[in-house]
Design a protein that fits this description.
It is a single chain. The chain has 13 helices and 13 strands. The N terminus is likely disordered. The protein is of the alpha/beta class. Bound molecules: NADP nicotinamide-adenine-dinucleotide phosphate.
Amino acid sequence: MNGCGSGCWMGICEPSLALSIVSGSQTDALVSDYSSKNKSSTGQKARWQAPAVESCAGGSSAPAMARLREKAKHLSMLFRELGKTGIRLPEIGIGTWNYRGGVEALRAAIECGARLIDTAESYGTEEIVGEAIKGRRHQVFLATKVLPRNFRRRDLIVAAERSLRRLGTDHIDLYQLHWPNLTIPIEDPMRGMEELVDAGKVRFIGVSNFIVRDLIEAQAALGKQRIVANQVRYSLVDRTIEGGLLQYCQKNGITVIAYSPLASGVRNIRAADPERVLRRVAQASAKSEAQVALNWCISKENVIAIPKASTVAHVMENVGASGWKLQPELAHVLEKRIRYRRRGALEMGARRAVRWGMQKLGRWQ
Ligand SMILES: NC(=O)c1ccc[n+]([C@@H]2O[C@H](COP(=O)([O-])OP(=O)(O)OC[C@H]3O[C@@H](n4cnc5c(N)ncnc54)[C@H](OP(=O)(O)O)[C@@H]3O)[C@@H](O)[C@H]2O)c1
């Protein structure tokens, strides 16, 4: 449906996008095994191995999964390198904040190639993610987050152990600092992170909601590891990161993981789009509005997106946001005609001051 299957789109080769293009059923070679036997002392040196495609019977009904697998054959997923790690991630993953889809939607995401699953200790979804990936762990790139209140070295390690237990796994692929903690020196969590990598419990270190200054300080606090990703809000209606953070990440090989890429619901994009531009672009592209909104996010260099989807239908629709390219004129219209927010330095500074005050009082996570 979406791609020509050769890393090209409409006959035009896209080197930046063409890391890999495969159908949903072929992605095992890309999101592959990091079992304990492969772990090196630094964790990051171990390469994923391509495992055999696994049976998906059990849990979700086998006939339903077989039907899904059949449908997934028609979907294509492009991949992006995670930081400078050589690991390729699907450019569409799945988020699980407020997730209500049981194991089915998550397993559909795995079947369809959206094998980056994002959760957090604060979401209350690590258990359901753990259940969904049982028997499929090697196919999934698992990302979770630690709350700022657990940034003391020892607390961070204990928090990671708790997440590992809830997720039912022995390693987290990407462990992210959920928000900056403005009251704890960044050296503290980064020491904990490096210990977790050395112990093989974490493969890669990420952050979330970090501004450029935070990124620089966090990287300086690390010894041998690099920050590979920054998870931040990015959508057609919130383009704050275009004020410098996006460019910094692109320049420094830090993957931007776009959260709330559908603005927490397509209706919120429509509310900023009185001329119905999104709908018209979707019609002109023969895609859905959600697919266009997601494709716009991942059309930016270094950006991948993690829409939350609680239904199999939404998961499959979102996977269809990858494997094709929005025409530049249409992307331009979206950018010009849909109202968006770009918070300036003053507003960001004020929000940070409030967060610092609340963290100081112990009232903010
Ligand atoms: N790091 C952070 O601080 C942070 C903050 C917020 C979010 N996140 C991460 O980012 C993920 C996504 O962000 P989000 O949950 O705020 O919002 P989102 O992904 O922008 O939007 C989710 C909403 O869109 C709906 N939806 C999904 N696919 C759709 C489709 N194809 N057509 C129409 N509607 C569709 C979902 O409905 P259904 O659920 O009914 O499918 C849900 O109501 C979170 O789950 C979380 O993992 C991180």
